[in-house]
Amino acid sequence: MSFRLSRRSGFVVAGLAMVGMMAAAAAPSPLYPIYQQLWGFSSFTLTVIFAVYVVALLATLLTVGSLPDHVGRRPILIAGMVLLGVGMLLFVHASGTGTLLLARIVQGVATGAMTGAVSALIVDLAPSPQRGSMVSSGAPTFGLGFGAALAGALVEYAPWPRYLVYWVLLAAYVVLAVALFYVPEERDGARPPAAVLLRSLRPSLGIAPQTRPVLAGLVPAFVATWALGGLYLSLGSSVVGKLLGVGNHFVVGLVLAGFFVPAAFSLLLAERLPAPRRRVVGLALLGGGVALTVLGVLVTSLPVYLAGSVVAGAGFGITFLVAMGAIVAATPPRSRAQTFATVFVISYTAFSVPAVVAGLAVQGFGLRPTLVGYGVFEVALVLVAASLAARQQGARRV
Question: 194 pLDDT exceeds 60?
Answer without folding.
Answer: no
